[in-house]
Design a protein that fits this description.
Layout (H helix, E strand, L loop, with lengths): L24 H22 L4 E3 L9 E5 L3 E11 L4 E8 L2 E11 L1 E7 L5 E7 H14 L14 E3 L10
Antiparallel strand pairs: 1-2, 2-3, 3-6, 4-5, 5-8, 6-7
Length: 167
Amino acid sequence: MEREILLLGNPQLYEISEDVKKEELEDLRPVFEDMFDCIKGIRRDYGFGRAIAAPQIGIKKRLICILTDKPYVIINPTLEFIGDEMMELMDDCMSFPKLLVRVHRYRHCILRYTDENWEKQEMRMDDDMSELIQHEYDHLDGILATMRAIDNKSFVMKKYANPSLSK
């Protein structure tokens, strides 16, 4: 089910999420599917979207779903940054789909998490995937890309990626 995504300014987006407990896993499985449906809906409506964090749909749990080469369910993630190399980019977000924010992110990181089978996983993430997981991880701590803006001129409004969608 495609749930409503909370928009910039909603106070729930600024709250810190709680760890998922193993006994909650089965009850959360429908939420995983809802999150993947939200990614597909944003892609349909705005032409972007690879991942979503549970707080964006009002679920205060440390849970991220990524839909790239395959679907990933990321539970209770931790990040370790590799080196000091940073990159500057224009970040977008499902919670403010027509706004881009210029931010700095680490170029490389290691993601450690529990998957949907409650098995420990570890992945090295570089460049765009490193940026993506940092963005989603921030949501778990109540941090939005707007709060990481490089300066007060780092905001750009965008049009729909697909001109046939703009009205």
